[in-house]
Amino acid sequence: MSEPFPSAAPHLRHLFELLADDAPAEALGAVLSTARADGVPAGELAEVERATATALRIRGALRQHRRRELQLTALFDTAGDLAASRDLDDVLKAIVRRARMLLGTDTAYLTLPDEEAGDTYMRVTDGSVSLLFQRLRLELGEGLGGLVAQTASPYATPDYRTDERFHHTRNINAGVLDEGLVAILGVPLLLGSSRGGTGKVIGVLFAADRAPRVFSPDEVALLCSLAAHAAIAIDTARALADTTSALAELAEANAELAEANASVRAHSAAMRRAEESHDRLTDLVLRGRDVKDVAAAVAALLDSPLTIHDPGGRPLAAVRPDGTGFAADSMDAGWLAEAAEESRTGARAVHREGRVVCAVLAGQELLAGLVLHRSRPLDDSDRRLFERSSVVTGLLLLLRRTVAETENRIRGELIADLLTDPARDPAGLVERGRRLGIDLDRPHLLLVAETGARERLAPAAMRYLFGGEIHGVSAEHAGAVVLLIEADGSGPAAGAVARSAAAQLGQLAQAPVTVAATGPARGARELAAAYAEAARCLRAMRVLGRTGEGACVDELGFLGVVLGNGQDVGGFVSAALGPLLEYDAQRGTHLVRTLGAYFGAGGSLIRAKDELHVHVNTVVQRLDRIQVLLGRDWNEPDRALELQLALRLHLLSGRSSAER
């Protein structure tokens, strides 16, 4: 009796065990080789192969989740340190340590200027092993940090040793070489404004690796947020030190300067109010509140209505001083951009046209604009509170974006599986969607978008879904971006949604975006079929030259379906009408126009001659010539349909303008 074939079940169980133990990818991949060596049948071996691929994706997603959790925890811990500690050294050490942990670099450090010595020195380091590097002092303008301080802008280099953008000196090169640093990212600590109208650089925060590395825009933005916290900590410590010094001096002259005492008490009260206000805003971050809660707190503290707008002018929050919300109109994006640029350049809030505007930044990226609706300007303490609230708002928006990107990435994997193989496990796809907050049994519109600037389309789709009132998810698939948007009976039709999405995505991506829409559809199979229909519609729009527009299949009609199959339109027209087109071009006749009029009149010679404004005999003569050129079967049903379609395509392409 022959031995039974080995089963795949033990190997599948082994995959789960390895996944639970967080085994390396090599161990997961080795399961397939083991199953093949054990003689598992081909059918079950394919299941092991698919299960291995799924396990590798799950492992990657889990590792990504853990990294995101560590980043968010580090940001929250930093905000907590600012709220709980008044010791500047402790706060700066925590910020540098968390900068290193947040970006996963080998080292992190912070430099501050020494105004007495006229140079810059290492204030805090984390992960450094070189005493020479820790004692390094730099002249103004030297190295990467000197360029960051001069331009008040972040700079990154994948290999500092060979980067000629920076002023290399023997002193700096020796310290960097002794520490073994290669890739370096530096961001400025900005505070207030200088005489030149730009933010005053009070230090530089660095993250560095001992191997070549390219820092992403998100990593630059996160390090800028930590730098903003460090600047606040330094500013607060200096302000408290100044206040303490002033109080000590005024206490000695208390008997002679009674009026000065009142001024000191007022100043101390203002400082306490600013400190309490900052603690209140920081507490909102620690408790995981939203930008609307920050808006409510700031509106109450400054006793003025406050609105928060995204870079396109759309309102994100609108709150009165009593905490009640109100419906805010979209703000002119040009006006907001000008005010935000003035605020960014001056590193302070600006008063314009009865409103106070402060830019919410992540590095050089404009995340939003805070707009305080009041005619009178803010005093110094209130202005500082308003400006600090923009830092907290920026942190919340970055956290919100990070969470949204992670969730959308996981949901995007569901969309990819849905469009790739919906028949394999439709019930499983619906259940996965339900766990991710996507009810595939509800009606959805399916949009497919494409643009020449492909690298900017996916982030634009994220901001499109993130910033408005549209509920949906996006994913990259087959060279385009697919958006799944919840639909209801009262919402706009697919064509209207496609046109609106094309306009907004084009603005966000700064390039023409073509969008095809279909639906509503529900369930795995219907949504997969809807994607195929939208893809055909997109191909049709591409052939018709409707780049940068939005439409649905119903709006393109039969020609859209035909063109969507990617046929050679020019070749088809030439094959069908070539003899007539050539004859008309050589002799100046109107055979193509006559054929179109004849078909348009339903084969009636009388109606055709009226359309052409010629005698009926002229029509007969032209049709005889058409028969000579095209053959005796030109008016047979199949040939006539082909000729009518060619005439329509010829008319649509604009090449028949001479005959008209």
Oligomer: single chain
Q: In total, how many beta strands?
A: 16
Radius of gyration: 34 Å
- The rounded distance between the terminal residues' Cα atoms is 85 Å
Sheet/helix structural class = alpha+beta
Main β sheet profile: 6 strands, antiparallel
The shape, in one word, is: globular
Molecular structure report:
The protein has about 650 residues and is of the alpha+beta class. The chain has helices spanning about 10-20, 25-35, 40-85, 90-105, 130-135, 145-150, 170-180, 215-250, 260-285, 290-300, 335-345, 380-420, 425-435, 455-465, 495-510, 525-545, 555-565, 570-585, 590-600, 605-610, 615-630, 635-655; strands spanning about 105-115, 120-125, 135-140, 155, 185-190, 200-210, 305-310, 315-320, 350, 355-360, 365-375, 445-450, 470-475, 480-485, 515-520, 550. It has a 6-stranded antiparallel sheet, with helices on both faces. Strand 5 and strand 6 (about 200-210) form a beta hairpin. The longest helix has about 45 residues, at about 40-85.
